[in-house]
TrEMBL record:
InterPro entries: Metalloenz_LuxS/M16, MPP/UQCRC_Complex, Pept_M16_N, Peptidase_M16_C. Keywords: Signal. Residues 60-182 form the Peptidase M16 N-terminal domain. The keyword Cell wall biogenesis/degradation does not apply. Residues 199-376 form the Peptidase M16 C-terminal domain. GO terms for molecular function: metal ion binding. Residues 1-23 form the signal peptide. The lineage of its organism: Bacteria, Pseudomonadati, Bacteroidota, Cytophagia, Cytophagales. It comes from the Bacteria. Pfam families: Peptidase_M16 (PF00675), Peptidase_M16_C (PF05193). It comes from Pontibacter actiniarum. This is Peptidase M16.
Amino acid sequence: MIKKIYSAAFLALALLCAMPAQAQQSTPPPAGPAPKIELGKYEHFTLKNGLKVYVVENHKQPVVSMSLVLDRDPILEGDKAGYVQAAGQMMRTGTTNRTKDQFDEQVDFIGADLGFSSTGFNASSLKKHLPTLVDLTTDALLNPKFTQEELDKIKKQMKASLAQSKDNPDAIASRTRNMVLYGKDHPYGEVMTEETVDKITLQDIQDYYNTYYKPNIGYLAVVGDVTPKEMKKLLKKSFAKWEKGEVKDINFELPKAPEKTQVVIVDRPSAVQSSLVLTNPADLKPGAEDAVAASLMNNILGGGMDSRLFQNLRETHGYTYGAYSSINNDEILGRFNASANVRNAVTDSAVVEFMNELTKIRSERVSDEELRDAKAYIMGSFGRGLENPATVAVYAINTARYGLPEDYYANYLKKVEAVTADDVQRVAQKYINPDKMYVLAVGNASEIADKLKKFDKDDNQITYYNAEGNKVDRKAMGVPAGLTADKVIADYIKAIGGKANIEKLKDVSITSNATIQGMTLVFKQQQKGNDKFAMQVLMNNNPMQRVIINGDKGKMEAPMQGVNKELTADELKTQKLEANLFPALQYDKLGIKTKLTGVEDVNGTEAYAVEVTQPNGQKATHYFAKDTGLRLKEVNNLETPQGIITQTKTYGNYKEVNGVKFPYVTETVVGPQTIKAEVQTVEVNKNLSDDTFKL
């Protein structure tokens, strides 16, 4: 196991954010007979403005919920990708009658929930507050006030989320999968970036609202302690001013499956495992004749812990914590998907087993036992879903939206019972295409590319993309002849001021401020020479963490975690690397090995990727700009009790102090959390007392 003393930023995150517990594997009970299901009742009416309303009475609790769905076609957003999402969020930022704060206070006062998206809203409250809830919902729906201030806030949040996803292998895999399946010129395949978000204007938000927030494309589900008569009277009065309008249909050319299976790689030099996705388009519409059989087929193949993929890749071979598949229906074009996160060393072996299972379910009939268990699971899930009255409303709306037979859901269990092993094999052959699919891997290309070539049927020509969804020429992004890691690091040292200037810094003190989850943190780092370090993380002037290194001894304190320990020899070496402001000067002394692995795009800048390996095997990848030589990013894979977690640091806004450049902005991302630290002061040669570093 890799031993690691975490950085101050990581520990700060760990102290504030509880890690999710791992799911426990359990054995499902034996399949029983199919339950007798009776669909609940609903009443439907249409308002004069065209809004279709479905009311499901349920008087068990004094609660009412409303859910609006606007049935529009997908939108190609182009160079402003993200404006549709932003428009949905802007619907909840105040009205012409209430400021955002006033609106929020009134929603909270009645204990309600009210949220909007680009395709509708969800609202719920106690029955006694229903008139107020409808009034608030109507105000947001009919009188939204879009302001530049709120749009700027939303754009900032969207860009922060994008920054976090750039180093999330699963997010990268999902984004790249959609792009290769549908293409960038299709709504399902276009990629939102910081650049497209920056281009979103207030007029874009207003235009979206004016065009698509129309009642005649709306389906409203109302569920709870209310009668259809009550609801009709309330809505007719409240929604009377919501005017209908023409919403044009948009047609898109259907993307096609590749002629031959293609391998796609997103190179992540620091990755210790690969995020694998095998996918192909599947022309499966909602409520299609094959939909039930396809659902059963997928359940057997990769629907859960008892499925073939899970049992093969995890239980038999130990390649992954879990392997799954899905088949999605869609009005335009669905997809088949199989995925797992596997170790680099077994990436090709995992693909072999995926292909074996995909081929097997197409070429052989499933067993009677597998089919029986899958039917029991689907029937049970269907029955449990009906325990929620809202499900009845959803089924009613789906029937109308997709033109399904009126008895589609009433006869659903009969459809499940009627599926045969031959049907399962037939839909597998129809919707899974091992010879015409994409094999996508987000991982360390230098370790996995050669192994994956054999799966590419297009002359073994692997296609490469970067994390932003752009196709890249790996050869063009390769390392120039004769360039080495030592040369890149030497250029970096020169870029920040040179060894001579760095050695003139006898001591350095840096104070930075950061905010996480609304709390302000203060980072204080002090260094004297090459063997004395002190690092503190404070919150409200209270110490959260303190690390001190003095020569060949070190200590770490984390009061909130009850940690007070001396560092081991290995931990000391690791922490020296973390704490040292100029670690590149200490690589030889600390036994650090470096390797130039390639070139990668870092936020639009080409950068050399240098793998840094410590004596204990801990690896990190540092990225240095080709043009300036400055370090732009560092990626560490941290071993924790919850498994490997990726920590990414980005550096920017370099400023010179006494002839040496320091990054004044450091952004640390660990999982879903981000700490952005901004330097407040850098002080050098202040003759720090040795008492500062006393253990």
